[in-house]
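Entry 12.
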Amino acid sequence: NRVLIVFQFTARVVLIIGTITVFRQLNYIGNKELGLNLDQTLIVKGPAVKDSTYQSTLSFFGNEIKKVSGVSSFALASSIPGQELQWGRSFARQDSPKNSIGCSIVAIDENFFDLFDAKFVAGKNFPDGSTAWRDAIIINEAAARQFGYSDPSQANGQVIIWDENDQPLQKQVIGVVRDF
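Predicted 3D structure (tokens):
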């Protein structure tokens, strides 16, 4: 009988501690500053097919979504915020090409940061969706630190070498966004 009473008491204490821990974790997640504003946001994951109809399909979707009442803006991205990133490349500073680091990539349009109210530490967003910005990138604070900049704003304006299938491509950092 004593063993059963001790077991029940121990189980009760473990369950109470577990409940408090889960409550605190949920409270933390609910109040954590994400770095992005997801209020009043619907995220739709599109097909991951990129064929010859991709650009026309995107244009059609963008034009149709603008017609929906209640939709104030939309953005395109290769990944859903908060989802594990699956796309990456090797990057290096132009002044140190042998010291490459692996970075994850999210392809976005010029509306992404405005839609999610992301904050820039330095630089600016893409002004438009034209191909004039194909050699520009925006990095986050964590990437700037990995590149060795003690102050993330020092990365702004610098040239980063992007390894694309063993072809070094130069990309200029036009902005540094806060981590999210």
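Annotation: The first helix runs from residue 2 to 31. The beta strands are 88-93, 96-104, 120-123, 136-140, 159-164, 167-177.
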